[in-house]
Write a structure and sequence with these properties.
Elements (H helix, E strand, L loop, with lengths): L1 H7 L1 H8 L17 E2 L2 E2 H7 L8 H28 L2 H23 L16 H14 L3 H24 L4 H27 L11 H8 L12
Antiparallel strand pairs: 1-2
Length: 227
């Protein structure tokens, strides 16, 4: 009897339908899943590339992307506590790795890290407002939460593309390219889960053509060294 009750609950159904691997989220690992003497390979690789001159715009965008990756991590962590759907927990972990990659650059170039070590608290006022808005939207329903996830990944891809266009530093471009790869994989994951629930997602920041070219293609793997 208890088993039947469990099977009728949303967590029970989701546990049955969706494996806890996060729909291949580990494939979006920005380090390529490799390590160098205990240090994730991607972090070691980026840290040991030669420094290049850093302009003010590049500095601003590094600091912004550090908090935007935290935005994604914190929203997903909060929505996981609300809905207990593994995809939010798994992608939140991936976003922490994205934060780490940007963090390596901030330390490498001697910038002041804007991250406040509390969930949902940000230095950048715009990101703070965005966090509050997205969490409120995602707590309305599970479907709204999944759409919030897709929207965050769209926004991340869009902002990373702009930031990448404003730098010729190899280490920064490598980090941005790997973060974009991860965000494309996350977007694929969120839209796939939505489709399994019988819902579609309409892009808000990407063109329809670019969005379709992402979600209709397989998960991307490996560490990008030459963006």
């Amino acid at each position: 009897m208890e088993l039947k009750k469990f099977a009728k609950t949303l967590p029970g159904i989701l546990f049955t339908l969706f494996p806890l691997t996060g729909f291949g989220i580990n494939n979006s690992h920005p380090y390529g899943g490799m390590y160098h003497y205990g240090t994730p390979y991607g972090l070691y690789y980026v840290e040991n590339l030669p420094k290049q001159r850093l302009g003010e715009k590049e500095k601003e965008e590094l600091l912004y992307m550090r908090e935007e990756e935290k935005l994604a991590r914190d929203v997903y962590s909060t929505l996981y506590r609300k809905w207990r759907l593994p995809i939010f927990r798994n992608i939140a972990r991936s976003e922490q790795r994205h934060m780490d990659m940007v963090g390596v650059l901030i330390k490498k170039y001697g910038l002041k890290d804007p991250v406040i070590d509390r969930v949902g608290v940000f230095t950048n006022k715009h990101i703070q407002e965005l966090y509050n808005k997205l969490v409120a939207e995602g707590e309305k329903s599970l479907i709204d939460a999944l759409k919030v996830g897709a929207l965050i990944e769209e926004l991340d891809i869009t902002d990373l593309k702009k930031a990448m266009a404003n730098t010729d530093n190899r280490d920064i471009r490598i980090v941005y390219a790997n973060l974009m790869k991860g965000s494309r994989n996350h977007l694929r994951a969120f839209t796939r889960v939505l489709s399994r629930f019988g819902y579609s997602y309409e892009p808000k920041y990407l063109s329809v053509e670019e969005f379709e070219s992402i979600v209709s293609t397989p998960i991307e793997r490996g560490f990008i060294r030459n963006p």
